[in-house]
Amino acid sequence: MSQPGPPGAYPVPQPGWQYYRQPPRKKKTGLLIVLLALGTVMVLGLAFGGYWFFVREGGSDAPPPVDASQDVAKAPIGCAVFDKSEVARYIPGRTDFEAGSANSTSDSLEQGQCAWNNTDTFIKDKVRAAHVIVTSYVYRATRTKSGVDAATEHLKRRVRNGVAVNVKDADEALLVEQGKRGHSVAVTARYRNVVYHVDYTNQTDGAPVKDGATALATAAIGKVAPKH
């Protein structure tokens, strides 16, 4: 048989000699597909786990991850704290009342304020000016603290120079004298997650403003504390 090229172009193999053929390289396509599939599964697993954690821990309907068992569910705020007859005895002459500011509500706090005074009538009635202002706070549990914790922090933050005063059923109560003439005091009292801040001013000479503010704070706390 004739060779396709000139003589000597291809070496003639010797007896017993074999050609060595390098084995073909294995394709890596299959391995790459497997790795990509595993990576996709891991990503989906992490995403699902994060979503489940969010639903359980951060969902709006999920219970807060703090102990809120001592939080009061509801308490009167603003002008609902007192009716006119409860305040009238502390203000000479005829009294008027109006909301000092609109009530506000958020996920963590319900707040309101109301004022009672004789500003428009005290001259005609020939009495001294007086007013009562009550500001109310009802704290709600968040993911980081209970309503009780938030109310406790509020009292420490707002009342820095107060002295302890006896307000029945209150967990703590502090009194602060305002001004130099002894006509005005403020009592801040807390029951669990509810805080009532009572400002009482009466310019009548000798008016028992400390006793009046303490009595008003006691009446407010009595509306949320359990009856004995």
Describe this entry's structure for a reader.
The protein has about 230 residues and is α+β, with helices and mostly antiparallel strands. The protein is built from 4 helices and 7 strands. Strands 1-2-3-7-6-5-4 form a 7-stranded antiparallel sheet. A hairpin with a 5-residue loop joins strand 5 (about 170-180) and strand 6 (about 185-190). It starts with about 30 loop residues before the first helix and ends in a 7-residue tail after the last helix. About 30% of the residues are buried.
How widely separated are the two ends?
Answer: 122 Å
SS elements, strand count: 7
Uncertain parts: 16-20, 51-59
Helix proportion:
25-40%
Main β sheet profile = 7 strands, antiparallel
**Rg value:** 40 Å
Strand and helix order: HHEEEHEEEEH
- Give the percentage of residues in beta strands: 15-25%
Instruction: Give the neighbour order of strands across the main sheet.
Output: 1-2-3-7-6-5-4
What class, by secondary structure content?
Answer: alpha+beta
In one word, what is the shape? Answer: elongated
Q: Overall mean pLDDT score?
A: 82
Transmembrane segments: 31-54
Protein name: DUF3558 domain-containing protein
Keywords: Membrane, Transmembrane, Transmembrane helix
